[in-house]
Amino acid sequence: MSVHLSAEPGQIAETVLLPGDPLRARHIAETFFENPVQHNTVRGMLGYTGTYKGQRVSVQGTGMGIPSAMIYVSELIRDYGCRKLIRVGTCGSYQEGVHVRDLVLAQAACTDSNINNVRFGPRNFAPIADFGLLLRAYQIAQERGFTTHVGNVMSTDSFYQDDPRGFRDWASFGVLAAEMEAAGLYTLAAQHGVRALTVLTVSDHLVTREETTAEERQQTFNQMIEVALDAALGG
Ligand SMILES: O=P(O)(O)O[C@H]1O[C@H](CO)[C@@H](O)[C@H]1O
Ligand SMILES: O=c1cc[nH]c(=O)[nH]1
């Protein structure tokens, strides 16, 4: 047991998928895992462990935002020995050419969070994905014909921005989309010497204001989860 997870030692696999939404964790376990067993219900942050194509894998909800996600990621690494952590989330596109339902692989993550200012002071740390996981995920997505973009994302602490056009500064430097956790995940992975990747589905568009329906989101979420599972488990 850790402070926020009730799993027994050894009950969580070395490879863990990390959706923000705990109900997406349940959907992943019920749809993709063989013999899923629930390993956490503390705070309603559902977690499950099972197998995928015969290999042991877990999924754990993280909640929204870097502070919540870093609690779960820290405990998974330190208390349960997890070594491969793949976030599977939604994002809002900053770029006209990155459409709703497309996949985004976060090669790196900018942030407006203070987490790394506290650590590094005036020096900047660049939170990046594990290259092997990133390459494998890209290859799998290409093989399956999923429209996929690779690049920088913005891990913001503020879903609702005071200036709704403020994202354009980031967009002009090529940042692809906004989400809220990748920079925290990548920073912890670097600190602990483990592997991490963030795979996202574009759920809405900050330029065109387009949104996906719940049904469409379900379908493209499944593409993202297939890519994440096969990249992590070598399928
Ligand atoms: O769909 P998830 O994984 O929760 O990710 C995105 O959605 C939430 C905001 O609605 C934030 O957590 C953001 O990162
Ligand atoms: O964090 C997020 C997730 C989806 N869409 C956004 O605009 N932001």
Element order: H for helix, E for strand: EHEEEHEEHHEHEHEH
Radius of gyration equals 17 Å
**Cα-to-Cα separation, first versus last residue:** 31 Å
The largest sheet has its strands arranged as: 5-8-7-6-9
Strands, total number = 9
Instruction: Give the names of the bound compounds.
Output: 1-O-phosphono-alpha-D-ribofuranose, uracil
In percent, how helical is the residue content?
A: 25-40%
Low-confidence stretches: none
Structural class, by secondary structure, is alpha/beta
- Estimate the global geometry from the Cα principal axes: globular
Strand content is: 25-35%
Mean pLDDT: 95
Biggest pleated sheet: 5 strands, mixed, barrel
| Continuous helix count | 7
* Assembly level: single chain
How would you characterize the overall build of this protein?
This protein has 235 residues and is α/β, with parallel strands linked by helices. The chain has 7 helices and 9 strands, in the order βαβββαββααβαβαβα. Strand 7 (148-155), helix 5 and strand 8 form a beta-alpha-beta unit. The longest helix is centred in the last third of the chain and has 20 residues, at 214-233. The protein starts with 14 loop residues before the first strand and ends with a helix. The mean pLDDT is 95. The structure holds 1-O-phosphono-alpha-D-ribofuranose (R1P) and uracil. 1-O-phosphono-alpha-D-ribofuranose (R1P) binds at residues 19-21, 64, 89-90, 159, 179-181. Residues 90-92, 159, 178-180, 203-204 line the site of uracil. InterPro entries: DeoD-type, Nucleoside_phosphorylase_d, Nucleoside_phosphorylase_sf.
